[in-house]
Structure formats: structure tokens, C-alpha cells
Amino acid sequence: MRGIDVSENNGNVDWEAVARAGYEFAIIRLGYGHGHLDSKFYNNINAAKAVGLKLGVYYYSYAVTEDDAEYEADYIAKILDDCGLGANDLPMGVWIDEEDADGWRERHGLDMSPEGLQTITNMVTLTVNKLWDAGLQPAGVYCNLDWLENHIDIACRLPVHLNNRIHWNDNNRSRSLEEQKLDVYVTLDRNCNR
Fold first, then answer.
1. What 3-state class would DSSP assign to 126?
2. What angle separates helix 117-133 from helix 66-82, to the nearest 10 degrees?
3. Residue 178, Cβ neighbours under 10 Å: how many?
4. Which burial class, exposed, middle or buried, applies to 27 when counting CB atoms under 10 A from its CB (0-12, 13-18, 19+)?
5. For 34, which DSSP code?
6. Any residues with CB less than 8 A from the CB of 189 and at least 6 apart, and which?
7. Local structure of residue 166 (DSSP, 8 states)
8. What is the pLDDT at residue 130?
9. Span 77-110, pLDDT tens digits
């Protein structure tokens, strides 16, 4: 199954061309940080739906505390409820995007050392649990392989959705997993908060 993820950073997406190219699903960024709606979210979700793609959404987290993570989860559920999207409309799931590509989270107090692993795992699990409790399933974490291996408690992982890996921008599948630096979608055990 081929899919893409998009955000306002991709500009205006030609969704008819996406469908013609054989893509079957789209995971669309709902927003990021402390209540910032992606400026293209409504356009993208409606246009992708109109061309018959299976839908999912992701939210780029800027949480540095469990309170931040709870706010983000509530925001995701509220926006989806406000626009009438539920689990049946989102067969590709609802995902919290965990990374710190710009270093903002670490500069604002997120402990990225091995000692901070449990805090990050707690935030992810809290978010996923709130999404599940809101009826948004599947729900899980979207991250790169480095985050999965070094920043989230892997002992809490459940089976990975979408055939374990999504190959973004990498047509050379003969390379090793480490060389590809793939993004993954993962569900977590509801009991990972320790």
C-alpha cells in the first residue's frame, strides 16, 4: 500500500495527481505545538477524501511535559470532533509525531539523555491513551528510527502498524534499515506510564 504524508510545508497538493500516481492513502498533518492548526489541514483532508484516499492524521509534538502532551491530545481530539472526523473516517490512524528536528524541545527543557527516556515514553503513552479514550483508533506514535530506538521505551511497543515501516522518499529498498533511516508508526502498550 502506497501513501504520503503532507503538511502546509508541501504547499498546494494536486490530490488528483496523487491518486492517479497510485497512492492509496494520505496521512495529513493536523497541526503542531501548543494548538497550532496546520494552515492546509482542512484543504488537504477534504481534497484527499474527495479523490478516495484512505485518511490518517498526525500532530507534530512540541511537548516537553506531560501537561503539554495532555493539551496536545485534547487539541487533536477537539479539532477532529469539530470537523466531524472519527475513527471510521481515519482508517490510517491518528499519530503523534515524536521528534525534535529543530532542537526546540531540548532547548525548552526536554531531557534527551537516556535518563529522559521515561519522560518521553510517558508523554507519548499519555497522548495515545487519550486518543484511544476519545475513540480514535488506531492511534500511536510516528517517529524516525533513532527516536524509536533511543528516546522511547521500546519495551512498551506493540506490533507496528502499516507493515512495520513506511518508506518515505527512498526507492532503494535494498539498503539496510539503518541506511534508510526510515520513519515508523508504532502503537504502545496502554500501561507504559510507570
1. helix
2. 30
3. 10
4. buried
5. T
6. 125, 156, 157, 158
7. B
8. 92
9. 999 999 999 999 999 999 999 888 899 999 999 9
